[in-house]
């Protein structure tokens, strides 16, 4: 059996490709960013074996339900790697995790991350964590810990991936979901900031493999380079959604991620009801049109892969619409009434898109 041998003749972790000192330096560089995410309930500092969160804070709840989620950002990391930009991908990670948690009405509490690299570049790892920390601030949660793993031989020196897990809490009688939705409810759409973090395998195949576009290429329709558009951070809606639950009656949220708008909205629609979303109420951003045109991707394929300009949806009673839209507008969220809830009738699915997109 062969083995890696150090200059001194004995096998070593460093000679095998794992640099512990670089890992330690990365931890030092990220400490200031993690500190910015702290909530009063967080105990201890970075470097322990486990993150600690004071659960006595939950005593104010009559019946607290913990909500948890885990996710990554998919092949969007390839765009970050190719562009050498590492401080935005963390926003995407927090959004993918915490915006799933807020769907049930839960307040985000804390998050942990996992960063896997082929080789530890301390400044690069710190930049990733910086983005995660900034995302946690936007979501209102603490970053209580994480892991950076170096996998030489499995990943190339510049390759990396990120994943995260989060926890939130909601009062049992405030839990949102399908059982609250009623006929006549309105469906409010909240604009996405772009592609977010889904469908990048299709996007990369279309734009790079088929159209031979370059990341540094200026695209007139986008008003910036292709790379800048593809790295646009995912919008984090957590605090906006929580604000909505405080000012309006909300029956359900739906985070529009993999699977597209109709499929994700259908996940929160009860079996006896149906959601109809009118495409004519908004115009998807230029990036969606670009992917469709250069790849000759059919609309239904686009819609089941990409968010098409909508990142989150709220289902509210008709009488709550005005207050809900005002709340979101005051928070700088572009939102509009995009559909309604009706009886299921002969509809085969829980949600469908109708009409054509606005021009």
From TrEMBL:
InterPro entries: PurM-like_C_dom, PurM-like_C_sf, PurM-like_N, PurM-like_N_sf, PurM_cligase
Location in the cell: Cytoplasm
EC number: 6.3.3.1
Signal sequence coordinates: none
Pfam families the UniProt entry points to: AIRS, AIRS_C
Cross-referenced CDD domains: PurM
Reaction(s) catalysed by this chain's protein: 2-formamido-N(1)-(5-O-phospho-beta-D-ribosyl)acetamidine + ATP = 5-amino-1-(5-phospho-beta-D-ribosyl)imidazole + ADP + phosphate + H(+)
Domain spans labelled PurM-like N-terminal: 62-170
Pathways involved: Purine metabolism; IMP biosynthesis via de novo pathway; 5-amino-1-(5-phospho-D-ribosyl)imidazole from N(2)-formyl-N(1)-(5-phospho-D-ribosyl)glycinamide: step 2/2
Keyword tags: ATP-binding, Cytoplasm, Ligase, Nucleotide-binding, Purine biosynthesis
Record domain PurM-like C-terminal: where: 183-347
GO molecular function terms attached to this record: phosphoribosylformylglycinamidine cyclo-ligase activity
Superkingdom in the source lineage: Bacteria
UniProt xrefs under PANTHER family: TRIFUNCTIONAL PURINE BIOSYNTHETIC PROTEIN ADENOSINE-3, TRIFUNCTIONAL PURINE BIOSYNTHETIC PROTEIN ADENOSINE-3-RELATED
Protein family membership: Belongs to the AIR synthase family.
Protein name: Phosphoribosylformylglycinamidine cyclo-ligase
Source organism of the structure: Streptomyces coeruleoprunus
């Amino acid at each position: 059996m062969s083995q890696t041998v150090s200059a001194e003749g004995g096998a070593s972790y460093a000679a095998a490709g794992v640099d512990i000192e670089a890992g330690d330096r990365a931890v030092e560089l990220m400490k200031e960013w993690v500190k910015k995410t702290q909530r009063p309930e967080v105990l201890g500092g970075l470097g322990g074996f486990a993150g600690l969160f004071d659960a006595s804070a939950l005593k104010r709840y009559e019946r607290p339900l913990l909500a948890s989620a885990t996710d990554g950002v998919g092949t969007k990391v390839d765009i970050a790697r190719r562009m050498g930009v590492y401080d935005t991908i963390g926003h995407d990670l927090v959004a993918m995790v915490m915006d799933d948690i807020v769907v049930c009405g839960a307040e985000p509490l804390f998050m942990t991350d996992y960063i896997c690299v082929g080789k530890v570049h301390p400044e690069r790892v710190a930049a990733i964590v910086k983005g995660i920390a900034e995302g946690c601030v936007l979501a209102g949660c603490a970053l209580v810990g994480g892991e950076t793993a170096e996998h030489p031989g499995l990943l190339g020196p510049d390759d990396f991936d990120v994943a995260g897990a989060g926890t939130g809490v909601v009062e049992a009688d405030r839990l949102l979901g399908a059982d609250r939705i009623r006929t006549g409810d309105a469906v409010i759409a909240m604009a996405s900031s772009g592609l977010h973090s889904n469908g990048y395998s299709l996007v990369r195949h279309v734009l790079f493999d088929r159209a031979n576009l370059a990341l540094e290429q200026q695209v007139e329709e986008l008003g910036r380079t292709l790379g800048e558009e593809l790295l646009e951070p995912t919008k984090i809606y957590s605090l906006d959604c929580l604000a909505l639950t405080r000012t309006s009656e909300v029956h359900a949220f739906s985070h529009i991620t993999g699977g597209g708008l109709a499929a994700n909205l259908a996940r929160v629609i009860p079996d006896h009801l149906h959601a109809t979303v009118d495409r004519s109420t908004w115009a998807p951003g230029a990036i969606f049109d670009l992917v469709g045109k250069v790849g000759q991707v059919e609309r239904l394929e686009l819609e089941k892969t990409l968010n098409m300009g909508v990142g989150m949806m709220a289902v509210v009673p008709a009488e709550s619409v005005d207050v809900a839209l005002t709340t979101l507008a005051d928070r700088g969220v572009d939102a509009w009434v995009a559909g309604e809830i009706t009886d299921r009738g002969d509809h085969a699915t829980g949600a469908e898109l109708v009409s054509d997109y606005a021009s």
